[in-house]
Write a structure and sequence with these properties.
It is a single chain. This protein has 177 residues and is of the alpha/beta class. The protein has five helices and nine strands; from the N terminus they run H-E-E-H-H-E-H-E-E-E-E-H-E-E. The longest helix is centred in the middle third of the chain and has 13 residues. It is globular. Bound molecules: adenosine monophosphate (AMP). Adenosine monophosphate (AMP) binds next to strand 2, strand 7 and helix 5.
């Protein structure tokens, strides 16, 4: 199947849930993609397409839905996986980064030994919205000394201009709404 028809199937499978988790948010629900074996596999094929096994050392996924795509991509490329989690969830020593939300702030963390300094690391999340989460995760990886190769998303909400927070980094999304 061609990439464009796969992307069409992917776009059609993403479920738009209005007013979740709060009024005014259009939640992009990727569970129908995960529930379809061929679409899930196709999404991992498209995400990993630019890379060959051996080109990436660690795939990093952002809690929680980023874990799913990042772990599958890591298996496909034969490399390790590392989680970026909300502060307080990881059991060992961590590096942390905070970012502003509309109201308040969030802190995310990664284990200090999750990535090797100088390692070629690839960062994945399901959705790029305002870009705050991914920018903080990228900052964490750079603090850890990683060589961040790309930040990839299944879905980008283009109207929120999250890419602007990821300047100087290669950013790729399978679908842009
Ligand atoms: P942001 O920091 O605003 O780019 O938000 C990105 C994070 O929030 C990602 O981990 C997404 O899983 C989640 N997220 C934000 N907005 C949405 C949305 N409209 N639909 C689904 N997930 C979202």
């Amino acid at each position: 199947m061609s990439n464009s028809s796969t992307l069409g199937r992917l776009a059609a499978a993403v479920r738009n849930v209005p007013d979740f988790p709060k009024p005014g948010i259009q939640f992009k629900d990727i569970t129908p993609v995960l529930g379809d074996a061929s679409l899930f596999a196709a999404s991992i094929d498209l995400l990993t397409a630019p890379f060959q096994p051996g080109q990436i050392e660690t795939v990093v996924g952002i809690e929680a839905r980023g874990f799913i795509f990042a772990a599958a991509a890591a298996l496909k490329l034969g490399c390790g996986f590392a989680p970026v989690r909300k502060k307080g969830k990881l059991p060992w020593q961590t590096l942390e980064a905070s970012y502003d939300l509309e109201y308040g702030s969030n802190t995310i963390a990664i284990h200090t030994d999750a990535v090797r300094p100088g390692a070629r690391v690839w960062l994945i999340d399901d959705v790029l919205a305002t870009g705050g989460t991914a920018a903080a995760a990228a900052a964490l990886l750079q603090k850890a000394g990683a060589n961040l190769i790309e930040v990839a998303f299944v879905i980008e909400l283009g109207f929120l201009h999250g890419r602007a927070k990821l300047q100087n980094l290669p950013v790729r999304s399978l679908l842009t709404f």
